[in-house]
Amino acid sequence: MKYMLLIHMNPVVWDGLSEDEKNAVFAGHATFQQTIRDSGEMVMTQALADPSGSATVRVRGGLPAVTDGPYLEAKEFLAGYYLVDCASEKRAVELAGLIPDAQYTGIEVRRVVFEAGMEQ
């Protein structure tokens, strides 16, 4: 089964980390990625830019209305994700606990129920 391991980040928490702590998080991602590659559970991962440069599009009356910034006011934002293919939700939760950001913020584990790609 495939699971999204969604990394949520609070910029106040991140900004409060020392340079050594931030570097440990980055190094931890390299270790985590190697772990899930070696186990065959890695499907993909992507990191997302800070939401300050994002736009939100809503269609109202058939016309797009675009606003700057994230889609809602929140202390945390989606910083990135791992898509893993593993045997169970229990294993997905175990993997989420290995993501270094988990010691500072939440990692949401969500099962994938539908997917489509370029070939479909």
Provide key terms for this protein.
120 residues; single chain; 29% helix; two-stranded antiparallel ribbon; 3 helices
Overview of the molecule:
The protein is an alpha+beta fold and 120 residues long. Helices cover 29% and strands 33% of the residues. It contains three helices and six strands, in the order βααββββαβ. It has helices at 11-15, 19-38, 89-98; strands at 2-9, 42-47, 55-60, 63-68, 77-85, 107-111. Strands 2-5-1-6 form a four-stranded antiparallel β-sheet. Strand 3 (55-60) and strand 4 form a beta hairpin. The longest helix has 20 residues, at 19-38. It starts with a strand and ends in a 9-residue tail after the last strand. 13% of the residues are buried. The model has no long low-confidence stretch (mean pLDDT 90).
How widely separated are the two ends? 20 Å
Query: How many DSSP helices?
Result: 3
> What series of H and E elements makes up the topology?
EHHEEEEHE
Biggest β-sheet description = 4 strands, antiparallel
Radius of gyration: 16 Å
Number of strands: 6
Strand and helix layout:
Elements: E1 2-9, H1 11-15, H2 19-38, E2 42-47, E3 55-60, E4 63-68, E5 77-85, H3 89-98, E6 107-111
Antiparallel strand pairs: 1-5, 1-6, 2-5, 3-4
What's the quick description here?
It is built from 3 helices and 6 strands; from the N terminus they run βααββββαβ. It has helices at residues 11-15, 19-38, 89-98, and strands at residues 2-9, 42-47, 55-60, 63-68, 77-85, 107-111. Strand 3 and strand 4 (63-68) form a beta hairpin.
